[in-house]
Protein 1
Amino acid sequence: MSVTSSLLSFAAVAALLTIVPGLDTAYVLRTALVSGRRPAFAAALGIGTGSLVWGAAAAVGVSALLTASTVAYTALRVAGAAYLVWLGVQMIRSTLRRRDPDAPGGPGDAVSSRRAWWRGTLTNLLNPKVGAFYLAVIPQFLPEQAPPLLMGVALALVHNAEGMLWFSALILAAHGVRGWLRRPSVHRAIDRVTGTALIGFGLKLAVSPH
């Protein structure tokens, strides 16, 4: 398999994963609705940063260690679940503390681009299922003549490019209705729904054996 055919074949597989609704999509969409386009794009870049790390790790075998070691995988799974539940609870609490969700001070409020990027990165890195996907897929697309680390990063960049196209469409669509969605009552509802979804993702991750 040549490098070009490897990249094209992986792009087809990654495209299917990109458009399936999941935690990354929910986080970017919520950020777009609450904080605006710039933080939402920062959140998408954060998710992409996490994907690059996972891609490099899968290429050099670090993800294989997580799969082989029950303790390491469980530790990452529990940490990721705890982070998601904490983030979800904080979002819901912020809607109960304030009638005006635009008041500063809570994780449910509009966030800066830097904070959105960091949360996006953590959300991706603390999800062992992302690592499991990269472990299962990337080694199949590593040509023998290509350096594994560079090829792993290249494949992750392909996935990132597709993800940014998808996230851009979501962000621009959300921006069109953001004025209505930023009403205090609607804003609270968005944070409560998103917070509940994050808690649900976290609990599912915590009890999932794989």
Note: Residues 1 and 181 are 48 Å apart (CA to CA).
Protein 2
Amino acid sequence: MTPPPAHWRVLVIEDEALVAMLVEDALLDAGFGVIGPARSVSEALALLAREEPAAAVLDLNLGGETSLAVADALVARGVPFVVATGYGPAGLPAAHRHVPVLPKPYDPADLTAALEKLCAGR
């Protein structure tokens, strides 16, 4: 597999430190650039205001706070994303049901494959 171009920078939005580190390591190993990780909605929105990610990995629940505002901001900016959640697709509102979902726990290879697919058209 060809590594993704360096301009494929991925915004990681994950509140669990260990999971965030594992995601970051998997992305870096696959050749992606990493923005974050953001551990709260406010941190994710601040990073999104400053950065131009090619894609994002979004946890639905950030410390008990829903991250749907971040999902809405990603859609508004045209940034494709994958939702990594223990809730499955049923946890997404109808407006975001088209978004790929990786049920936790997931294989890092599944994450990088999903992101490669999302970034391929960018």
Note: The longest strand covers residues 33-38.
Protein 3
Amino acid sequence: MRHRKKGRQLGRQTKHRWALFRSLVTSLLEHERIETTEAKAKEIRGFTDRMITLGKEGTLPARRRALAFIRSKDVVSKLFSDVAGRFKDRQGGYTRMVKTRRRIGDGAEMVAIELVTMVEKASKAATVPATTTPVAAPEASA
């Protein structure tokens, strides 16, 4: 029976699986968008949301808890200074998964997992109209 055994094993031993999760969350917070398999992305969503919630808390114990999970001090400082500030009015759902392709080798479903505000900034930049008008080139006379 598998009562109260949540989460995917992903074909790995426990320590290897936790190392994978820590590495993926660190990369996601550093680059704000990564591509991985759908199963791995679904697993790291909760860890990423917890780390951003710790960043929003902003206390020293929260920073120490984040440092215990995230592999890089630079990423933790980015989390507490930059990323947490972007989500201060949001109550959850900090990540988005977008299906991208099937991996050629084994046909695994690949997704891009990204922080939500990253896409919002890109879409705002794309909707701003250009302020300059194109100037027509002078015609050459023969």
Note: The first strand starts at residue 33 and ends at 37.
